[in-house]
Every structure is written in C-alpha cells, then in structure tokens.
Amino acid sequence: MKMDDVPLKVKLILYIGFSVLIVMAATTAIIISTSTSQHEELAYKKSIEKASNYANQFNSDMQANMAIARTIASTLTVYNSSDRDEVNDILREVLVDNPNLIGTYTGFEPNAFDGRDAEFAGTEGYDSTGRLVPYWNKIGGTMFVEPLIDYESSDYYQLPKQLEQEVLTEPYLYQGELIVSYVSPIMREDEFVGIGGVDVSLNYIDEIVSNVTAFETGYAFTTSNTGILLSHPVHKEWIGTQTLNDFDDPEITRMAEDILVGQGGHIETIDPTTGENAIIFYEPVRTGNYSFILVIPEEEMLADVTALRNELIIISSLALIFMAGAAYLVAISITRPINDIVSNFGDISDSALKGDLGRRAETEVEVDLRKIPSGLNEILDSLQTYSDELEKANEELKSLDQMKDVFLSNVSHELRTPLTSIKGYTQNVYDESLGDVNDQQKTSLGTVIRNADRLRRLVDSLLYISKAQAEVIEYNFKECQMAEIMNNTIMDTIMLVEANDLHIEKKIPSDLPTIEADKTRLVDMLNNLVDNAIKFTPPGGIITLGVYEEERYLHLTVHDTGIGIPKELIPNLFRKFYQIDSSIRRKYGGTGLGLYICKKIVDAHSGEIWIESETDQGTTVHIRLPKSRNGGEASGNMEVSGSVEINGNEE
C-alpha cells in the first residue's frame, strides 16, 4: 500500500503528540501570563488600598480642623456683644476642648470689631494697633495668648481677605514647630471684616506615618501639595526643609507634578533613602492638597510573582522537550500534503480573483483529503453558472435603470410647463391684476403659490438627479456677492416663513470678499436648507442665515431652533432619498433629496458641508466655499431681518 493511501486518521494517531505540543505550549503560556498578572495586580491593589486608606484618614482629620475654624468664624460673624474678653474666652475654650489643636485665633480689620482699637493699643495681649488679634496657643506646652504677628503680609490673613473664602496654608515653621493654618473669613453684609482660624502641628502626622510598614522594609511619608516633606521615618532633618524636586529624579519630579494638582498614582524609580529599585505609590489628601506616599522595594513586592513565574517556566520547559520528538514527526507527515493542497487552492484563488472561474482543483491527493478539492470543484461549477446568470441580470438592471432615468427626466420636463402656467396665472390673480379678490380668496391663492413653488423645487430636484446621473450638469461660475445670494433666498422663502409664523434673520458682515460660484445653484442650495428649517421648526422659532470670512473660505451657516437631529443619524443625512424614519416622512413630507442635492452643489464648488445638531436643541448647517482668487470684496452691512431658527430631521 502506498503511503498516500494510508488514512490521515492513522497518521494522526501515530503522531498525536504534535497537537498536544501546541495545546500544552499555548495553555502553559496563558497560565503563566494569567497567574503572574493576577499576583502582580493583587500586590499593586493592596499597596494602593493601603495608601488610599491612610490618605482618607488624614483627609478626615483635616476636614474636622477646617470645620472648627469655620465654626469660630461663623460664631464671630453673628457676634454682636463687642466684648473682647468674651471672645478670648471662646477661643481659649475651643483650644481646651480640642487637644489636637496647637492654636486658635481671630483677627479683625481696624475698628471692625467694636471701634475701640485706640483704647487697647500697646496694652497686654494687643499690639501697637489695638486691633482684636488674639492668638491662643500652647506651643512649648503652656497655654497663653499673644497678638497675631505679620498679619499684614502673611498668607493666613491676606489670602482669606483677598479670596473671601476658606484657606488652608502651606506648612510653615513657627517658633520651631511645623504647623499648618486653617482659616475662614468673617463676612458681614458681604464685606470682609476679619478671620477665624486654628493651627495644627504636623508632628502627629510624622509620628503616625513613620510607624507605617509595607511588606518587609517598605515605609511611608507625607508631603504638602508643593512637595514639602511633612514626615519621614529616617531623615527627620528633611521635614519642613526638603521638597520632592530636591531629589533631582525625573520620576519623582513627575510624581511631584501630580501631587501639585491633587492626582494619585505610582512610579518606579530608585529610592533616594535606600538606593534600591522601588515602587512608590501616592494618594492625595483632598482637604489639604497633601499626599500620602508609600515606598515599597520592587523586589519584595514582586517576589511571589517572580517565584511563581520561574516554577511554571521550568515545568513547561520539561513538558515541551518531552513532546518535541512527536511534534517533529507529525509536522513532516502532515505538512507536505496540506501544502500541496494550499498551493493548488492559491492558484485557483488568484485566477478567480482575476475573473477566471475555469480552473479546477487537483483531485489526486491523499484519500482523506480528496473530498476537499472535489467539493471545491463543485462550488466553482456552481459559481460559474451563477456568474453567467448574474451578468445577464446585471445587464437587464442597467437597461431598466436607464429607462427609469429617462422616464423621470421626461416626466419632470413635462411637469415644468403646466407648473409655470399655474404659478403665473395664480400670481396674477393674487396680485389682483385680473380683478379684486377678498382676503379669504387671497389667503387661499397664497397657499396655491407656495405649494406651486414647492412642487417646482421638487421637479427641479428630480431633474437635477437625472442630469447628475447622466453627468450632463453644467455650472456657470462667475464673481458673486454672498449678500445678493442670501437676499434672493429670503425673497424666495419669505412667504413660507411668514405662513409658518417664523422669523428669519441674515447676518452679513461688511466688505466680504466675492466668490467664484454659480449664483443660481447656490440660491437653490440655500432655498433647500431654509425649506428644511421651516418644516422642522415650531411656530415662533428663528432661522438665521449667516456668513463670515476665514483665511481661504467664506463660511455660511443656516441655523434654526427646531426639533433637532440625533447625533448618531447625522452622517446619513446627505444620502439620496434618506429620511430618519417613516413617521418623519408622514408628518413633514419631503423626498429625501434636498441635502443630497446641496452636497452635490457644494462639491461642485470645491467646498465642504456638514451639520451640527442635537435633539430639541436646533440645527446648524455649515457650508465652507473658497474665496475668489483676486480677493474681491462685496459690500454689505450687517443686516438682520425677520424670521426664526430651525432644526431638522432634514430631507
């Protein structure tokens, strides 16, 4: 028995190892990738959660401190007793009741408290101005009161005064203590009269954060929003003096930029404390624009991930080596006959793509594969038959399409003559050239005239489509003034605008350049757009025709205040015969040709057209047309005349 006659099933049984090899390799790769990714993701997630939890804890503390400052300011805002001793008692009591505070204070503008500043100038507890500026604090351990200092220049007073809102200052050193001030303005009758605030020592943050650990040797510290270190477990001398930018590390600098805008994240860099590769996580403390920073050695964080990956790689490598021999034999046995079939199919495919369906597949192949080329040959036979029938049907369709175009063109031409007569005689009667008519008759005649115009535009649209398909449309390009074109459009549509209780405006700047265009076609285009706007704008709405100059174009707009168009449907609006749904066709009428014709006219002028719209928000159609090469200008003042705006599920 020839080898070619041996069933492929037998060969697969002998060399099944090949498939096992592929499956095992793919499965092992997926397991390694998935397992290590999950372990790595879990390690990152735990670190981020830890940083976020501490950040939220400090955020709550700072919100509570700001609430105390706000309470002091609110109390003094409505305080009317003018008793300075009572104010001092209030501040001292707040300091006693809140052991986390290091100071409480208030500061009033000159004579803003009781008008008696001169009486207290230079007395105990006051400075030379006599202003009410008591600062109750327990810096050094003993509670005492002293006047505020540097309030005419320091942020803790000047920022609330300038901004008239609550302020949390940057950390600063005061009498050897790193503190931060929470300040709220005192406003009376919308006028700034002073501040109420509290000071908090940041030493407690260092005490808490310095004891935070992560994995084996990871540690944490905090910074202000400008990168000033507020705590550090090792380098205490950095607190209040060192900033993140001082480390001269691009990644740490990027972290500092994120912290400045209150953004969290993580970086991978060299730890400036240990000199080892580390992953640094940072989370914002929202109230104070501070950040909690967690530093974890990369080796510790990913140790479990690395160990798991190594074990899986060793196991997979042994299995792959074991299956290599079987895989080699399977490859030799299967590759040759399959390659022959693929090569033969490739030749047939190339011929078919070139239109030649006469070639057939070679059937002298292994017994288990013979049905494949035989089946392909049967398919090719059927395709040849269908191809012949399709070609014949296509020729018939072309003939029918030509007949349809001729019919439309003939019917449109035949309709124009009676329409012209109907319009002309009706206009004569309407103008009372043939005798007087009463108001009711004149209204009816106006309706006939408007609908005759609409019917004429429909016939013109059908003629345009017919000519476009026959490629016989001619354009008469010459210098045109946009003001004249827009005036013609308004004259053509004003009766329909008024009949629908709308208002139309035109906005045309003076000294507009002229354009090279077919004026008649542009009037037709604008008529179509205004007609759409009228149809889809409720009574009382506004339609606005506008134009302004760009570098190389004139930019036209037709805006309405109508029903709008869903954004996802706008790309379809310029398709021939397209309307959004059947209910629109029934309610508003139309053939779906208007915007299609507008786009054809704009394309012929080497311009652009697009639509901006939202449901119930109106619609704006934009047209951009090239300016004339000679840069001529068309005079015209900015004009506004009656009408309303439109929106639209356009034709």
TrEMBL record:
The chain crosses the membrane at residues 12-32, 312-331. Residues 410-629 form the Histidine kinase domain. It is a multi-pass membrane protein. It catalyses: ATP + protein L-histidine = ADP + protein N-phospho-L-histidine. The keyword Coiled coil applies. CDD domains: HATPase_EvgS-ArcB-TorS-like (cd16922), HisKA (cd00082), PDC1_MCP_like (cd12913), PDC2_MCP_like (cd12912). One of its GO terms (molecular function) is phosphorelay sensor kinase activity. Residues 625-651 are annotated as: Disordered. The keyword Phosphoprotein applies. Residues 376-410 form a coiled coil. Residues 638-651 have a biased composition (Polar residues). It comes from the Archaea. One of its GO terms (cellular component) is plasma membrane. It is found in: Cell membrane. Keywords: Cell membrane, Coiled coil, Kinase, Membrane, Phosphoprotein, Transferase, Transmembrane, Transmembrane helix, Two-component regulatory system. Its EC number is 2.7.13.3. Pfam families: dCache_1, HATPase_c, HisKA. SMART domains: HATPase_c, HisKA. PANTHER family: HISTIDINE KINASE, TWO-COMPONENT HISTIDINE KINASE. This is histidine kinase.
